[in-house]
Amino acid sequence: MSDQIDTSAPVLVTGASGYIAQQVILLLLDKGYKVRGTIRSLEKGPALKELLASKNPRASEIELFAADLTSDDGWPEAVAGCTYVHHIASPIPPELPKDPNDLIVPARDGALRALKASKTAGVKRVIMTSSVASVAYGYKKLPEIMNEDNWSNPDLLKDNTAYTRSKVIAEKAAWDYINGDGKGLELATINPSAVLGPVLSGDFSASVQLITQLMSGELPATPRIGFQIVDVRDVAAAHVAAMETPEAAGERFITASDYYWFGDIGGVLREEFPAYKKKIPTRKLPSFLLSFLSIFNPVMKQVIPELDKKRFVSNEKAQRVLGVTFRPGRESIIDGATSLIEHKVV
Ligand code: NAP
């Protein structure tokens, strides 16, 4: 059951330039909502609006506000008059920084900035993009299947990266705030697995590199790592459903579909895009070799917690409560690759 939602009050989407945020914005526009967005610099605003307007002409009406996760400036203005806020912005860099706090501090403090400004402005509900990084990491013995009751342990460092730690620390801080000073403000979190699916431009999230790395010929072999894939359009659907569904308040929702080993993503791409066949590696990189090479290579280092592990989460709750139907992983791989070819990325 959906609330009777007043579509005339603006809905704020933070990190409006991002891969997931763009799809959330498009879905909100399609459903008739007025949309606001935050970006770090307003200089990027006209290009962003033009990009989104190529999919929905109403994107030209989006109001953009400058706000950075690391500063208090701009947040009160951005949330003023909004009933709902989708807090999606968080650093997700392709390479991990030397200092984990470069990710943890903006993720955690940025979430608190968005929540505190929302509470002060009388916002009803914030829907925050967390991650399965906040569910499925830091276990001494990995459970066979995990759900929203599971929480990652950011202190078991060998089963985490700075990124996975940043996500669980930020989500925990958000719930602590809601259960303390922020009481009265509603929160729901969306916890996606590895997000794939179409990109709108040549500027996209780090997760899409799962495809670009395979199609660009830069990898001689694939490491034994795997992920549940979720389509960016289904993550957006979950975000909007978590806004419209009264029972979603106070809840976490895992969004995840089929599990793929990295090498098997290559298999799908070889079948569907024969012109790229020669570039897509068929060889497997032995895990012991990768562990050794990672001593010298910081990019490889971030893969180590994933090696030979199958982290598996249930999407049952998002289907049941939010009514989301998840696309098969194969469709997200194919649509992602097709869009990357269209944008001449690969
Ligand atoms: P993305 O395209 O890189 O989007 C990240 C957004 O966060 C961008 O708009 C970026 O702005 C913004 N941002 C980063 N640092 C910021 C700062 N200091 N101040 C203000 N804005 C900042 O990645 P995405 O995949 O859409 O990720 C969106 C959210 O989903 C993140 O919270 C991420 O952790 C979460 N998530 C992603 C995946 C995945 O597989 N992609 C999986 C689970 C969860 P700029 O454009 O200015 O850099």
Detailed description of the structure:
The chain is α/β, with parallel strands linked by helices and 346 residues long. It has twelve helices and twelve strands. The protein has helices at residues 19-30, 45-53, 75-79, 101-121, 162-178, 209-215, 232-244, 262-272, 287-293, 298-301, 316-322, 329-342, and strands at 11-13, 35-39, 63-66, 84-87, 125-129, 186-192, 194-196, 222-223, 226-231, 252-255, 259-261, 284-285. Strand 2 (35-39), helix 2 (45-53) and strand 3 form a beta-alpha-beta unit. It starts with 10 loop residues before the first strand and ends with a helix. Residues 15, 17-21, 40, 68-70, 88-92, 106, 129, 131, 167, 192, 194-195, 205, 207 line the site of NADP nicotinamide-adenine-dinucleotide phosphate.
Shape: globular
Poorly predicted segments: none
Alpha-carbon Rg, integer: 19 Å
Q: What about the largest sheet?
A: 7 strands, parallel
Features of this protein?
seven-stranded parallel β-sheet; binds NADP nicotinamide-adenine-dinucleotide phosphate; alpha/beta; 14% strand; three-stranded mixed β-sheet; 12 helices; 346 residues
